[in-house]
Amino acid sequence: MKVLVMHGSKRKNGNTGLLAGEFIRGAEEAGHQVERVELGDMKFGDCLGCMACWKNPGKCVQKDDMTAVLEKFGQADAIVFASPMYFFSWTSLMKRGIDRLYPYMTIAKDKTFYLIVAGGVPEEKLFDNMLQDFQKYVECFNMHGGVNNRNGGHILGKGTLAPGNVKESSAMQEAYEMGKNLGKN
Ligand SMILES: Cc1cc2nc3c(=O)[nH]c(=O)nc-3n(C[C@H](O)[C@H](O)[C@H](O)COP(=O)(O)O)c2cc1C
Question: pLDDT per residue over 69-109, tens digit each?
Fold first, then answer.
């Protein structure tokens, strides 16, 4: 399978990044082809809301660092959003990247989406907002022409505030196994 991991933290080696790394380790060991993009290193604009992409599916009028990501998105079977939880939601960086995937809304097919989140709070309940947003996000891809896109699951790095905290968490093993088992469920 082709896998695209979009990492949306400026802390490249922070908790989300570490979880994404474990997911990738598992996926590569299982023979999958993984591309990791660091949104924090990229220059790209906000979605303009011009809707031109609905007339020209898969293409955005803005030519910037998202152009290559869009191409990888189009080819990927599995997509991973790896974002820290900021104010109980995505980082603005992750959201900006997600909005720019709109050109695939009408044509995405058979893609499985995964969510990796790190957050400071230990209570699972407090991650609900992100999980609901994510589910809704995936559903959008089946509402306007896209077909058979689905939510493949999530990994929560709970109680992780300082970079590296997540190393003590069972989420590391869970992320590795999720990567290793890609395509089996
Ligand atoms: C601006 C900001 C907002 C945050 N908001 C929350 C929050 O609402 N809930 C929470 O549990 N943690 C919150 N955190 C803590 C981060 O989620 C936590 O440090 C996480 O490990 C960061 O992930 P990273 O290391 O991958 O960057 C916030 C951190 C920052 C900098």
Answer: 999 999 999 999 999 999 999 999 999 999 999 999 999 99
Which domain, by its residues, includes 87?
Answer: 2-125+136-180
Where residue 52 sits, what CATH number does that domain have?
A: 3.40.50.360
Spatial neighbors of 85 by CB under 8 A, at least 6 apart, are 117, 118, 119, 120, 121, 127, 130
Cα 13 to ligand 1 centre (Å): 14
Pocket test for ligand 1, best of 85, 158, 167 (most atoms within 8 A of CB): 85
131 within a domain of the structure (yes/no): no
Q: In 3-state terms, the chain is what percent helix, strand and coil (to 5)?
A: 40, 20, 40
In a domain, 90, yes or no: yes
Q: Domain for residue 185, yes or no? A: no
